[in-house]
Amino acid sequence: MPDGSIYMDYNATTPIAPEVLDEMFPYLKSEFGNPSSTYPLGIRAKVAVERAREEIAKLIGAETQEIVFLSGGSEANNMVLKGMVDLKRASDFHIIVSKIEHPSILNPCLYLMERGVEIDFIDVDGSGRVNPEDVERKIKPNTCLISIMLANNETGTIQPIGEISKIARSHGIVFHTDAAQAVGKIEVNANSLGVDLMTIAGHKLYA
Fold first, then answer.
1. Co-location of 172 and 78 in the same domain
2. Residues 92, 38: one domain?
3. Considering 59, 125, 135, 197, which has the largest number of Cβ atoms within 10 A of its Cβ?
4. How confident is the model at residue 64 (pLDDT cuts 50, 70, 90)?
């Protein structure tokens, strides 16, 4: 650090790894084409975007076409929650989340509640862990989404996502996990976890 301090807040954000910076530098300087353009500069940018999509898919055990790039984890979480609800029929929807989710989950929940969506907030035990049975007990006929983070940003507790995903699947409910604090720290495989939607954030893993 320039001021001689020691940075320890890596759960908040990470520096860009030198190899990532080297890989990105051409696109910050000369290879700045719009990937939707059909001339060579744009085509090269498109190839780079698709290569990045393939690498991320391999990292988390997903299919290439399942990777969607957004501005960050907060936008992704907002899109998941708000995208599941038709506000014209807000009272028809029910969502389940835990009480220890990131603000980018909890704040959109408050927004949706103000507009008539029913939301249940699941307690955690003394270790900060969600009990899958508590999740199942809250399921209703109109439950459209369950969202439980994979790893907590403050305690580091790993949630039983595989167990909860089986419950969600057995009831035909879309299951989302915010894995921003997990990818890059532990092995994460979206397919093995059984999730329908997963949020990750590059700035949490040196990108």
1. yes
2. no
3. 135
4. very high
pLDDT of residue 16: 95
- Those residues whose C-beta lies under 8 Å from the C-beta of residue 34, and which sit 6 or more positions away, are 42, 45
Structure tokens at 155: 């305690």
Assessment of whether the complete model's pTM goes beyond 0.85: yes
Do 84 and 91 contact (CB within 8 A), yes or no? no
User: Are the beta carbons of 120 and 111 closer than 8 angstroms?
Assistant: no
Of 71, 74, 135, nearest in space to 103 by CA: 74
User: How many structural domains is the chain composed of?
Assistant: 2
Domain that residue 94 falls in: 73-204
Q: What is the pLDDT of residue 3?
A: 85
Give percent of the chain above pLDDT 90: 95
**Do 155 and 85 share a structural domain?**
yes
**What is the reported pLDDT for 2?**
80
Clarify whether residues 127 and 171 are in a common domain.
Answer: yes
